Amino acid sequence: MTALAHLRATLDMLVVDWLGVDEDRDIVQGLLDLAEGIAADHFLPHYKLTDAQEPRLEADGVHVHPAIAPALRYYADAGLFAAGFAPDLGGMGLSALLGSAGFALFAAANIATAAYPMLTAANARLIATFGSAEQIDVFARPQIAGAWFGTMCLSEPQAGSSLADIRTRATPDGEDALGARYRLAGNKMWISGGDQDVSDNIVHLVLAKIPGPDGALPEGTAGISLFIVPKRLPDGTRNDVVVAGLNHKMGYRGIPNCLLNLGEEDGAVGWRVGAPGQGLRQMFQMMNEARIGVATGAAALAMRGYALSLDYARDRTQGREVGVRGGPPAAIIAHADVRHMLLQQKVYAEGALALCLYCAALVDAEEEALLGLLTPVAKTWASEFGLAANDLAIQIHGGYGYTRDFDVEQLWRDNRLNPIHEGTTGIQAIDLIGRKLLRSDDDAYAMLRARIDATVAAAQDDVDQCVPARAVADAWTRIDATLARLRDHPRAAHDNATAFLRAFGHATVGWLWLDIARASAGDDAAAAGRRHAARYFAAHELPRVAAWLAPVDARDALAAEMPDHGF
């Protein structure tokens, strides 16, 4: 079974049998058949080529590997850019769950090429949500058709995650049919797809500040507005957006990462989206969609690494089984340490995929509060433990694993970017504990706990899953108690926010594994394997929750109290 076929089988179970996708089964199978075929035939073949031949900056702009353009044309011709959009926008109207499952197949085949449509769809969706009818027609529809691509331009050289400190300036320049027009000047850093020679145009969504009457830029995030800044203007002329340089990445190399200069001459022309000062609120839609997309990509890379190392462990012979003397060498899957590593990969990779798909199902159900609570969890857990799964894949391959002849080393390099993409682990931890738990009402958390309790109650009478059910219940009882303490000592929450996030993420995935086990009632090997994996996660992974919570409960401040000169 190929790695993509292995992923496809897992997706079929999770999407149909576990989450019960809304679409007719024939539609589900047709879409996933289409995605798997295009991913295998047009994305996978240039996976290693685009890693070896990075994008290059020349006088006329950025050039990417020539195999990327035809792959994305197949993607566009199949209507996949439009999959998740309403029919009145030229879309298929498919569910977010089915769209995420299809994206996972493309991300597993070639994460860098898959990043172009991920960003483009999120860009178009933001414009469709907040833009005027004219802006939607001119800038969103060509992206939905796959003719134009989109980016998100937030960070600057001096302002990464601290968007309050951005200095890109937007000076009013009148008004036309597309709305309030501005001239932008500034620099934007880490812009994926910031320039390329694949699409007819590029639509940049740029965060910038409008100067006050005294010419000064407003401080803080309240003064941030959002602007549509195309590479080429509606009349076909080139906008004042220049690539100042490329960042040479360790992975994800097929999509260029650019430093953009806006306004080197007369100013880059841009049109404001919505009202002034609403830019960050609007951009959070795209950021959160991208966070789930990054997490799904991380899970897909983990799934591919797991499938490859599973095949390798079954084929590679080395040593003899314990207690066996003489005879031919045994496949390394017979060795206890390898079996542990394979089970760890399975629970990490499939658990990450399940978490991302669950979030996609929340989008379809319009459960915004619960989705908001779980977004930082999904983004972090999938990217960190997906990476851990790829690390284990290298270990199982032994010396072959760190050579370029085998894909697992590239999968690790590609995935290493994901704990940083769209907000680092520390940023997500502060979001979870600060904004989502301590500074908001308890509705989303209460909803989550009610679902967990329902799963635990249903599993308690199951001989196969009663022990994991108790482990899940115990983990969440510990989190409940920790949260109660933190509400009285919020500073302690920030001192150890990342530890709390990891505990929360592990407890969440433990619950999902328990729920998946309940949905895996068949006698086939795959169902039995999922039930076994749920028990393994409960026995070997959930005990880590108590260790992560220990310094949080103790209000440990060792990191905060360390003198700077002591490092």
What does this structure look like?
- The protein is α+β, with helices and mostly antiparallel strands.
- Helices cover 56% and strands 12% of the residues.
- The protein contains 19 helices and ten strands.
- Strands 3, 4, 5, 6, 7, 8, 9 and 10 form an eight-stranded mixed beta sheet that branches. A two-stranded antiparallel ribbon has the order 1-2.
- The longest helix is centred in the middle third of the chain and has 37 residues, at 279-315.
- The radius of gyration is 24 Å and the shape is globular.
- The chain starts with a helix and ends in a 6-residue tail after the last helix.
- The relative contact order is 0.09.
Mean of residue pLDDT? 96
Number of strands: 10
Total number of helices: 19
Main pleated sheet: 8 strands, mixed
What is the approximate shape? globular
Helix content: 55-70%
Distance between the termini: 50 Å
Could you tell me the strand content as a percent range?
5-15%
Order of SSEs = HHHEEHHHHEEEEEEEEHHHHHHHHHHHH
Radius of gyration: 24 Å
Alpha-beta classification: alpha+beta
Low-confidence stretches: none
Detail the topology: elements first, then pairings.
Elements: H1 3-18, H2 25-43, H3 47-52, E1 56-58, E2 61-63, H4 68-77, H5 96-109, H6 111-130, H7 133-144, E3 148-153, E4 169-176, E5 179-192, E6 201-209, E7 224-230, E8 241-246, E9 257-262, E10 268-272, H8 279-315, H9 336-364, H10 368-397, H11 408-416, H12 425-438, H13 443-459, H14 466-486, H15 490-495, H16 497-519, H17 525-541, H18 543-553, H19 558-561
Parallel strand pairs: 3-6
Antiparallel strand pairs: 1-2, 4-5, 5-9, 5-10, 6-7, 7-10, 8-9
Helix pairs in contact: 1-2, 1-5, 1-8, 1-9, 2-5, 5-6, 5-8, 5-9, 6-7, 6-8, 8-9, 8-10, 8-11, 9-10, 9-16, 9-17, 10-11, 10-12, 10-13, 10-16, 12-16, 13-14, 13-16, 14-16, 14-17, 14-18, 16-17, 16-18
